[in-house]
Amino acid sequence: MYKNLAATLVAACFISPVFSQAPAPAAPPLKIGVVHVTPVTEAGWVQQHEQARKQVEAALGDKVKTTYVENVAEGADAERVIRDLARQGHQLIFTPSFGYMEPTLKVAKEFPNVKFESITGYKTAPNVAVANARYYEGRYLAGIAAGRMATSAGYVAGFPIPEVIQGINAFALGMRSVNPQATVKVVWLGAWFDPPREREAAMTLFNQGVDVIAFHTGSTAVMSAAQERGKLAIAYHSDMRKVAPDAQLLAVTHQWGRYYTQRARAVLDGSWKSGALWGGVKEGMIRVDSFGPKVPKKVADEVLARQRDIANGKLHPFTARTTLLDNEGHQVLAAGQTLSDAQILDMNFLVQGVQGRLTH
Question: What is the three-class DSSP state of 277?
Fold first, then answer.
């Protein structure tokens, strides 16, 4: 009896008890906020950033939870909204408008553990990164198409900041690379998003005899005006054939989804760092596509070939084929030279062929 009891006790020493183990709680999702400078429309600058937000959700699933606030004016309103998002626990906040830069920097000082992405800004901080796209590359390509289709062009522009000036100049240089006598008339709005005034400016330019219009504003009003008048227009930010099926010459599209997703992944894996990215055709952030029905295949093929040249580093929009002059006749660049990134970022002149001044 005692022998059997001893054996039982010894055997029990080698039997591991079994406990029911509850699964580890899932990590809470990364809260991401996006601030939009205009209402979310079906096409345009804000729509491209809204698509980027949705692409983050599609790529990262339940690892993230995103939200957005639309139609937030630059300045005090932006600061309030950005601060509210930080207080609500958002750990990554995208602020895609130039006028959001200073409000972003101010709020970032108050929330050092929150990461901020200042899109089109240029000032960084330990928890503020900046990113922008080389919009001028797409503008140059659009200019080639416009130069093949017309001699006079118009340009409806928001504010005379370097980013906008780069686009106007690149567009004019693209036109004049295939049509040396081409001209570009500029109208400044002093606003990024004002559909009635955008339309009015486009109509004024058409009344002055321009055949094709480009724009750097936030709505589709210029495209609608071109459709109404039977003219041509360059879609900006996104494909706008839905509102201008006959008028669209092509679209200069902005692709932000990859960048947003990369930055969200970096926060999730702890590798996020402040920095500055200026990407273009090569990086997939700028693309010319969505040619309209009035564009001959020969022209489309030429534009796409030049797009490949830019991606491969064979073509730079701001390399002077001949002496580059501003529109007051002063030399800017000698033949064969190329503007540096620093010079492009500080651009404060309009090239020969552009009719207008840097005022609004």
Answer: strand
